[in-house]
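User: My collaborator sent over this chain with a note saying "see what the structure looks like." That's all I know about it. Can you take a look?
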Amino acid sequence: MKQYTHLTLEEREKLYLMKNNNMSYAKIGLALGRHPSTVRRELERNTDASRALGYLPDSANTISAQRRIGYGSKISRHPQLKAMIINRISLDRYSPEMIAGRLKDEQSRITISHESIYQYIYSQEGQEQKLYQYLMRSRPKRNKKYGRKVGSNYGIPHRVSISQRPKIKAEEFGHFEGDLTFFAGNSSINLLTMVERKTGYFMADLNDSKHSDKIVIALLNTLRQFPRKLRKSVTLDNGGEFVLHDMIRQVLGVPTYFCHPGSPWEKPYVETSHALLHRFIPKKTDSRTLTKVQVQQAVNKLNNLPRKRFNFKTPSEMMARENIFKYGALRA
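Assistant: Without extra context I'll predict from the sequence alone. Here is the result:
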């Protein structure tokens, strides 16, 4: 039986054009190789009701991705499974491997991998219950040696090393560097920062959480300010907040690359921008007092600092030269 796959951005763009030509669900489905009911559900579920323009491919992709993020893990979706796992670990002292193995052996209706159980144990919810203390090696933090590794991916699924990133030409627009920066007061509040490499143009988004689902949505919203043809790559570090980076490729078609561990110089523009940003918002600032208005004021100041590498033009002036507005993008 053919396995269902979610619509791609390319399929959504075709659907958008066919819908505007008043084609029926059946004809659109035939052209896409999809069932007509799939087309109907796509239009019903992924149309942004807040927009007068109706169904749009980019918005539909983002809505679909956000819904998938909201589904959560298998354990969070099945309370009985969660209760059984907690009891087996805390009372019977089963290891995750034992729990997963028994479920499979008993041909249980719901099975789960031992890796998913480990991820739950070390999730925020699992940490609050201190489930790690019942493991054979009761470490409050997971040792990397026992983490999931696929070709040294540092715990980040589908990680692609910066060494595999195509060479970026100095005159090529659309390559971004991203990172988080923190302040005093609260270790969760952060700024997601991004820099476009050619122009040095800096962007920042204030977040009250560093959870990966919040961060990837902030990344998507920042990148969507730019036209599709001008979004070419994003380079990140190996922080756990970027584990859902693959959503950027799935939703926007933009490849992501990761620096070598302990090599911040591999994304020099965002690192330099952090140093400049802290002139306007010092590191010792209590993050609980930060506001989006204060952050945007600092971003504006930073983008209007003359830079030696631009012969003392500012990033704002360099961005203006790109004439992004002709594409109808880049919100203020």
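A starting point for your reply to your collaborator: The longest strand covers residues 175-182.
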